[in-house]
């Protein structure tokens, strides 16, 4: 299967290839452990886009053989009811991954809910411990966030080297910009993060071998901003009115695709680029979580349960929290604001 059409990265094809590999892993796990990984999805409220993503996640689980659990709460659900649902899944031994679909209704404290997910089951990778670990040299998170993982997997699968490359990430959200920058850093890219106060962003982007656009602004990155041959990963999915579509809108990326495609060495389209990878990485994290549980190497509340190396103890947790201090301090408000904004102005 071709993963690129000319210089256009086919995210659907990459996702399909990885999902086949995941399905084979689940078959092997069933054979070896007589169990399959399980994913629980919690949704609060009736947002149409969130309901669509949850359905897509449940269907994707079915297709690869992951057991899927769900809990749908009304928008009026109290914080305590949401927490109780998360705790119920924390205590369910058939569930190895838990995700709470974001955004949550405004009266629910997102940070409290995300922080209540058992670290062992945090397959969305949003827990401050996991974000802290992402920021630490020589440490790895238990799980990394899915969209950032998808960006890296696209580069890897399309044979684009990361080590030593100059990477520019446009946007610093908690769910995409910051974690993708940290993942690129872990892969030894030289990483620059651009944001609203960046001076001469064009010049910064023009220096990049790899550009990840995750700012939630339609067509912000222009073709003229790019170094010829650069790899461009467009995370934006900005709904834009389009009378020719049944839904009345189409999704437009953060990169001006028509301009950029003749300059970039490789570029993701929107839709069909990063989007399909998000759910694929969720499946991958869930299978990895199941494997750890079945092999008895899961950590409980960040303490080693079995076979955890001594460095997995309390000190690195405190260091992780310290290193991620800024993210954690600002994170509660910022995550809610950014996810609410990105889900209303962009489905990614
Ligand atoms: N708990 C989480 N909430 C949210 C996340 C997340 O990773 N975890 N991310 C987004 C929504 N999201 C998954 O939840 C998601 C968004 C987009 C896609 C996708 O496949 N997009 C396609 C287009 C699909 C369409 O036509 O609508 C694409 O870009 O090609 C998958 C998952 C916010 N909430
Ligand atoms: Mg909220």
Automatic annotation (TrEMBL):
Its EC number is 3.5.4.9. Residues 9-124 form the Tetrahydrofolate dehydrogenase/cyclohydrolase catalytic domain. It comes from the Eukaryota. The keyword Hydrolase applies. Pfam families: THF_DHG_CYH (PF00763), THF_DHG_CYH_C (PF02882). InterPro entries: Aminoacid_DH-like_N_sf, NAD(P)-bd_dom_sf, THF_DH/CycHdrlase, THF_DH/CycHdrlase_cat_dom, THF_DH/CycHdrlase_CS, THF_DH/CycHdrlase_NAD-bd_dom. HAMAP family: THF_DHG_CYH. This is methenyltetrahydrofolate cyclohydrolase. It comes from Dunaliella salina (Green alga). The lineage of its organism: Eukaryota, Viridiplantae, Chlorophyta, core chlorophytes, Chlorophyceae.
């Amino acid at each position: 299967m071709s993963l690129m059409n000319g210089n256009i990265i086919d995210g659907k094809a990459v996702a399909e290839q990885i999902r086949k590999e995941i399905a084979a892993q689940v078959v092997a796990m069933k054979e070896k452990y007589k169990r399959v990984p399980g994913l629980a999805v919690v949704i609060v409220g009736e947002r149409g886009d969130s309901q669509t993503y949850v359905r897509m996640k449940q269907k994707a689980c079915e297709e690869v053989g992951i057991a899927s659990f769900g809990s749908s709460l009304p928008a009026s659900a109290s914080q305590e009811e949401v927490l109780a649902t998360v705790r119920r899944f924390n205590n369910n031994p058939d569930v190895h991954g838990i995700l709470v679909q974001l955004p949550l209704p405004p009266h629910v404290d997102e940070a409290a809910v995300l922080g209540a997910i058992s670290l062992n089951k945090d397959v969305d990778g949003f827990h401050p411990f996991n974000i802290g670990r992402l920021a630490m040299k020589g440490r790895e998170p238990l799980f990394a966030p899915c969209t950032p993982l998808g960006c890296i997997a696209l580069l890897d699968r399309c044979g684009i080297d990361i080590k030593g490359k100059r990477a520019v990430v446009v946007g610093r959200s908690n769910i995409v910009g910051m974690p993708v920058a940290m993942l690129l850093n872990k892969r030894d890219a030289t990483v620059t993060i651009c944001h609203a106060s960046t001076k001469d962003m064009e010049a910064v982007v023009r220096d990049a071998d790899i550009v990840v656009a995750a700012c939630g602004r339609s067509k912000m990155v222009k073709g003229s901003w790019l170094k010829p041959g650069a790899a461009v990963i467009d995370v934006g999915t900005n709904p834009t009115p389009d009378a020719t579509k049944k839904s009345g809108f189409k999704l437009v990326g953060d990169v001006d695709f028509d301009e950029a495609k003749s300059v970039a060495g490789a570029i993701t389209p929107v839709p069909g680029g990063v989007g399909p990878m998000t759910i694929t990485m969720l499946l991958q994290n869930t299978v990895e979580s199941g494997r750890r549980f079945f092999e008895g190497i899961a950590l409980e509340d960040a303490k080693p349960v079995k076979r955890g190396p001594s460095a997995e103890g309390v000190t690195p947790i405190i260091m992780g929290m310290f290193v991620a201090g800024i993210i954690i301090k600002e994170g509660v408000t910022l995550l809610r604001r950014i996810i609410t904004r990105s889900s209303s102005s962009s489905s990614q």
